[in-house]
Write a structure and sequence with these properties.
Elements (H helix, E strand, L loop, with lengths): L13 H9 L3 H8 L3 H15 L13 H14 L3 H8 L3 H23 L5 H15 L4 E11 L18 E8 L5 E7 L6 H7 L1 H7 L9 E2 L6 E2 L2 E3 L10 E2 L9 H27 L11 H20 L14 H4 L15 H20 L6
Parallel strand pairs: 1-6, 6-7
Antiparallel strand pairs: 1-2, 2-3, 4-5
Helix pairs in contact: 3-4, 3-6, 4-6, 5-6, 6-11, 10-13
Length: 371
């Protein structure tokens, strides 16, 4: 039998047979799409135009905009192959591939200015205030970390994509706000690079050094005359900088140093929780993505922008199913990812150490009272 599914005597698949009924059952709809119908309709209102195709009378059964978005969601939700989706929706494999990649591009291009714009100075001030209110850490403007996304080994790539976890990957470096929303992301093809090396080469660092990122100047610590720069929080794999705080190393830490690590790790776990959320919600991240690296980047970007849309729309679908990272796990320093040879810029590290000492003293003076 031919795989030319678009025939009058071969009715279309999952979308026509199942989706209309799911719209009338909110819980089932959320399980199927990982979002509420309200959020789904919001996204459709923005993408319908770009996903509209010019059909002629030779097309007996055109693939409408909504079905295109549903196919893309099912790919992200299940991680199923194009072949499996082809049978489910009774559409050719190459058509499924084209629909998904186009829809991911449309999602990123339309919603990035709305739900992941480049932060302004006022945005950073707001983020800092939220980190202090929620996590008790002053002057923090983001939590940063890297996530390895498992991919099929690209042809003739050697060990470029082979990471320390012993599989092939691309890397998402993400910075999140106090609510776990992505504020800046960068995707790196080669999984063999460490978090610290990726950070050092990143556009984020370049923009900071070139003062293109509108980070506010010094700000007084709460209840103090001491001024401290605004900073990001990273784990032990990252370099210590005036604009980047990291945990203290060593087994024999003082009480003050241990308290500093606890407070920092408590705030830093927000980015780990965001990675947990997207992996739980979008199961394509739990599997080996059978795509070229440039298409893997589209998948990651699409997931990140959907994550932000759900947060902005207060869509808490499946949030209770997420396994959050606890503080004890976060305080593990990820020694295997640290490459001490990457960062020998003593002047920058010295300034970072001075900021860290002042922050440590402030933590000791103003302990948390609510755990």
């Amino acid at each position: 039998m031919s795989l030319n599914f678009i025939k009058p005597d071969f009715p279309r698949g999952e979308y026509n047979a199942l989706f209309p009924d799911l719209k009338r059952i909110p819980k089932k709809f959320k399980l199927y799409t990982r979002m509420s119908l309200l959020t789904f309709d919001y996204i459709m209102s923005k993408v319908s135009g770009p996903l509209t195709k010019n059909w002629c009378n030779l097309h007996d059964s055109p693939i409408l905009q909504e079905e295109r978005f549903v196919i893309t969601l099912r790919f992200l939700v299940t991680g199923n192959s194009y072949s499996a989706l082809s049978f489910s929706f009774k559409i050719g494999i190459s058509t499924v591939s084209g629909i998904i990649l186009e829809c991911l591009d449309v999602l990123w291009n339309i919603f990035t200015p709305i739900h992941m714009p480049v932060p302004t100075e006022s945005d950073f001030v707001k983020i800092s205030n939220e980190f202090f209110c929620k996590w008790g850490v002053p002057n923090c403007i983001g939590s940063i970390d890297g996530k390895h996304v498992r991919i099929k080994k690209p042809a003739h790539s050697g060990t470029l994509f082979y990471n320390y976890k012993n599989y092939f990957s691309s890397v998402l470096q993400a910075t999140v706000d106090a609510n776990g929303k992505f504020i800046m992301i960068e995707i790196y093809k080669y999984g063999s690079q460490s978090d610290g090396a990726i950070f050092y080469k990143s556009k984020l660092v370049m923009n900071i050094h070139q003062r293109k990122l509108k980070i506010p100047t010094l700000k007084k610590l709460p209840w103090s005359e001491e001024k401290l720069p605004y900073y990001f929080i990273g784990d032990g794999a990252y370099p210590l900088r005036e604009y980047l705080m990291k945990p203290m190393r060593g087994q024999r830490l003082t009480t003050q140093e241990s308290n500093y690590n606890y407070r920092l790790s408590r705030a830093r776990c927000v980015v780990e929780n965001s990675f947990g959320r997207i992996s739980k919600k979008w199961e394509v991240l739990q599997k080996t993505i059978q795509q070229k690296p440039e298409n893997v980047e589209k998948v990651i970007k699409g997931i990140c922008i959907l994550h932000n849309i759900l947060i902005d729309k207060n869509d808490k679908t499946l949030m209770n199913d997420v396994k959050y990272v606890n503080e004890q796990e976060v305080q593990e320093d990820k020694q295997q990812r640290y490459d001490s040879q990457q960062f020998q810029h003593q002047r920058l590290a010295q300034k970072g150490a001075q900021s860290r000492s002042r922050l440590m003293e402030w933590f000791a003076k103003y302990p948390l009272h609510n755990g």
